[in-house]
Amino acid sequence: MFEKIKRLGTDTAIYGISTILGRFLTFLLTPLYANILPPSDVGIIATMYAYIAFLNVMYSYGMDSAYMKYTSTLELGNAKQTFTIPFLSLTLTSVLISILLFWQAETLTGVINLSSSLKSVTVYAALILCLDAISLVPFASLRMERKAKQFAAIKLVTIVVNVCCNVVFLIMYRMGVEGVFLSGVVSSALAVVLLLPTILRQLTLSLPSRVLAPLLRFGLPYVPAGLATMMIQVIDRPILEALTDKATVGIYQANYRLGIFMMLIVSMYDFAWRPFFLSHARDTEAKELFARVLTYFVLLMAAVFLVLSFFLENIVKWPVFWGRSILPEAYWSGLDIVPVVLLAYVFLGISNNMVAGIYIEKKTQHLPAITFIGAAVNVAANLALIPIIGIMGAALATLMSYAAMATVLYFTVQKYYAVKYEFERLAKIVVAAAIVFGLYLLVELDSFELVWKVALLILFVVIMHWMKFFQSSELKRLAMIFRRGTTNRKGSDLPVDIGA
Predict the structure, then answer these.
(1) Which residues, in sequence order, are bridge partners of residue 325?
(2) How far apart are CA 20 and CA 149, in angstroms?
(3) How is residue 172 annotated by DSSP?
(4) Domain-wise residue ranges, the chain
(5) SS3 helix, strand, coil % of the chain, rounded to 5?
(6) Which has the closest alpha carbon to 155: 7, 349, 8, 16?
């Protein structure tokens, strides 16, 4: 079991390197926008990308997920057929929909409450949607072939280009909001170009008609489910704008983006997790393996939650950009939402793990109901809480919706693919993290702030050990890894034994 988990960790690390570097580069856009654009423009960018997120679901209609499912079994055709049909289907529909959006660009600009001078933003958004849809299946193909390094390299290159274009268009050409979306067009187009070898290698003229229908049956339930998921992720921006103003949305968006570090953990895990559980679904120890993976993943997320909650405010206020902080002082009023956003991503990570049973047993028809419950909780909580506590209400609504979705998902999946999760060990993680975070909130030691925070992190490990969270076999393996690392450091000048 450990070797399988180790392989999952290796793939996660490869995806993670590109994801962390890429997201860090993207994260640099947050201080760029905050220091160059007014909060109202940052709010426009946030709202527009919320609409793009919704439309991404319509453009993809679950075809990437259907491809990954059926290419892992090849029950509908050979590898090239299961690639070509969803790829061509997405290419055709995305081009047609984008042409429709170009035609109605002026009308749509008014509908989404943008100035007529920003009509080009609507056109750029349609191009981004089309190009991203075309690249979905090729990217999924790299994941299924375990070509994590190639996947990571392409993602990283396109993100670097996006960031560079943002800098050029915003600083040199003063293009404002239009420059942000033009940068997105350039990077999305580059992704398609870099994926051309993968696309051409897998295209075939042999297209059996029996393949498309099962792909659609599997993928289409992802449309309502995906719309509900996007509603959970981004509906708070339009609601917040309707109940407050664009500047408030800008402050919320800038601070919400600080949760990117937890999102990185969840995202890079999810990239590796889906191919992993599909590959091991029929193993005799699969359910035990999946339960153990969740335990380790929750432990990792708890540790990351505590570290980020303790130190992120210090990092944000530190003047690192020629005397300027990551976020200007005008945005600091929103820093209180960051721990809430981090915790929301923890529940999202748990949901991503539990959804394995839905995939394995082909019960995707349950996803719309599960995600719509989360979406309903999100919308209701936003409408109820934002008028009372402002942006904190929007953050709490996100947390509540992810928690509700994870709960409903657990009980649904257990009916079809029962996994005995290690609840006793999970409870120990929760108790230890809650005690440490509670002390952080209740006890303030201004003179020894950093020392106190480090001591709390050590206390977390001590409490976990005191509650006997770690099993003896895990402690032995950790000790073995530590001894190997120590030996390698001491003997770094010695020749390597190839036979070791």
Answers:
(1) 319
(2) 14
(3) I
(4) 423-483
(5) 85, 0, 15
(6) 16
Q: What is the DSSP string of 283-304?
A: STTHHHHHHHHHHHHHHHHHHH
8 A C-beta contact, residue 379 and residue 232: no
Euclidean distance between CA atoms 149 and 133, whole angstroms: 21
Residue of 12, 261, 21 lying closest to 143 (CA atoms): 12
Q: Identify which of 350, 352, 14 has the alpha carbon closest to the alpha carbon of residue 151.
A: 14
Answer for the pair 12, 269: CB distance below 8 angstroms, yes or no: yes
Lowest mean pLDDT among 155-159, 328-332, 347-351, 424-428: 328-332
Where do the DSSP E strands lie in 207-352? 319-321, 324-325
Q: Which residues pair with 173 in a beta bridge?
A: none
Burial class of residue 296 (count of CB atoms within 10 Å of its CB; 0-12, 13-18, 19+): middle
d(CA 167, CA 31): 12
The answer to whether 281 and 361 are in contact (CB under 8 A) is no
**Mean pLDDT across the chain:** 85
How far, in Å, CA of 57 to CA of 52, rounded?
9
Other C-beta atoms within 10 Å of 27: how many? 18
**pLDDT tens sequence across 332-349:** 888 999 999 999 999 999
Question: Which residue type sits at 4?
Answer: K
Residues 6+ apart with CB under 8 A from 28: 163
DSSP for residue 495: P
Give me the mean pLDDT over the 116-125 stretch. 91
Burial of 444 (0-12, 13-18, 19+ CB in 10 A): exposed
Overall size of the chain counted in residues = 500
Least confident of 80-89, 254-263, 405-414: 254-263
DSSP 122-143: HHHHHHHHHHHHHHHHHHHHHH
Query: The tokens of 195 are what?
Result: 């994926």
d(CA 375, CA 382): 10
Q: Which helix (H) or strand (E) holds 9?
A: helix 2-27
Cα gap 16→264, rounded to integer Å:
7
**Higher pLDDT, residue 35 or 461:** 461
